[in-house]
Amino acid sequence: MRKTIVTLMLACAGQLLAGGFYLQLGNPEANAEARKMNAAVVIKAAGCHDPATATVTATAIGMVNGQRRTLPLEVKALGGAGEFALTQQWPKEGKWVIQLVGRNGEQFTNTLIGAGPDGVDRLHAKFDMKAFQKSDVEAMLQ
Questions:
Q1: Rounded to an integer, what distance in angstroms lies between the CA atom of residue 6 and that of residue 142?
Q2: CA-CA distance, 137 to 26, in Å (whole number)?
Q3: In angstroms, rounded to a whole number, what is the distance separating the alpha carbons of residues 138 and 142?
Q4: Following DSSP, what letter does each residue of the chain receive, concatenated?
Q5: Do residues 90 and 115 lie in contact, with contact meaning Cβ atoms separated by under 8 Å?
Q6: Cβ(56)–Cβ(84) under 8 Å?
Q7: What average pLDDT is seen over the chain?
Q8: What does the pLDDT look like over 29-47, one tens digit per residue?
Q9: Which domains does the chain have, with CATH numbers?
Q10: Are 90 and 96 in contact (CB under 8 A)?
Q11: Whole-prediction pTM value?
Q12: For the CA atoms of 12, 13, 14, 17, what is the dihedral angle to 10 degrees?
């Protein structure tokens, strides 16, 4: 009986401590393939899943001359499983937030990255496993 309880506790602890699904942001200068594409940021699907089956989509949301703009962005797969590159496809003028959405089966994660004329701000990105609200994007555009 004691062994059964210990085994059950260890099995449950493993499930509780198991990682989720999230996106890591990387410096494109550290990846030769991304550097060749002139990428603004490298994205890696990470966590407890098969990275080869992960998908990432991106949208640029910005304010240019007082006008709100939303642009779908192309995310390019890199050679490594679950690795992607995003090039700057949004205008240099204005203030932008890049919304990345990662999916792997039923798993979901998303990331908001500030962007401007000098590139993306990976250090102050926001990550969550639930969808961001419009107010989250608005706060980053201020």
A1: 52
A2: 21
A3: 6
A4: -HHHHHHHHHHHHHHHH---EEEEEE-GGG-HHHHHHTEEEEEEEEESS-GGG-EEEEEEEEEETTEEEEEEE-EEE-SSTTEEEEE--S-SSSEEEEEEEEEETTEEEEEEEEEETTEEEEEEEEEESSPPPHHHHHHHH-
A5: yes
A6: yes
A7: 89
A8: 999 999 999 999 999 999 9
A9: 20-141 (2.60.40)
A10: yes
A11: 0.84
A12: 130
Dihedral angle at the C-alpha atoms of 87, 91, 94, 99, nearest 10 degrees? Answer: -40
Instruction: Please tell me the total number of residues recorded for the chain in this structure.
Output: 142
Q: Which two tokens stand for residue 36?
A: 């060749």
Alpha carbons within 13 angstroms on the beta-carbon side of residue 35 total: 5
Q: 61-111 pLDDT, tens per residue? A: 999 988 999 999 999 999 999 999 999 999 999 999 999 999 999 999 999
* Dihedral of alpha carbons 124, 83, 23, 63, sign: positive
